Every structure is written in C-alpha cells, then in structure tokens.
Please model this.
Amino acid sequence: MTDPVCPKTGAPMHRAARPMALAYKGLELTFDMPGWYCAASDESIHTGEDMKVSDRALNRLKDEAEGLSSPEDIEEYHHLKGRDRAVIATADAPAEIIEAVRNATMDARHDHLNDLLKDWTP
Model:
C-alpha cells in the first residue's frame, strides 16, 4: 500500500504502531496496533494483516475471561507431552547413587503416610 492520506484532513499518514485498548467482560488489554496513522487527526487505517493483531488480542482477552488456556500454555503442554521419557535401570547407576538412594529418608512431615502401608503386602 502506498502512503495514504487522511480521509478527514488530507494530511499524509505514516506507518506506526500505537497503543490500543480492548475491553471484554470487565477485562482490559492494551497492545500495540500497527496501521497508518494521521498526525493531524485521530484517524487510522488498518490493513487485513494489521487487523489480525487486534483479532489475536481480542481472542486472548476472551480466552482469559472464559478461563481458557493461552496459546503459550498450549504450546508448553505440547512441548512437555512430547518430551522423551527416560528410564534408567539401577544396574546402570553408579554405586554411590544406589547407596544414596538406599540410605535416603523421607522428611518427618511425611511420617503419617507410613500408617497407610502397615497392612500392605505386595
């Protein structure tokens, strides 16, 4: 798009990103909205690509209001879910590690859990 002129004043418009606030169900979000802005008025023009920024911001605000996971939460979930699980056989562990595990004790705050195992048999 060539540099447009302001439909209100005829002044040249310049490409920039300005703070824009959205509100939804009592929540507010301010983000940088790209577009063509007029210095002589409050007019702005936004391309389809610019509008994707505000669409994403509104979707994020709606997700938060409805208690849904954010895109970052979903990405982290998929990352964690896809991690390789490692199983290490005790036979492969060094002797000092095996000895440390053998001699390990639980914190006294967990002593009450021993009562759950009194009648347990494998």
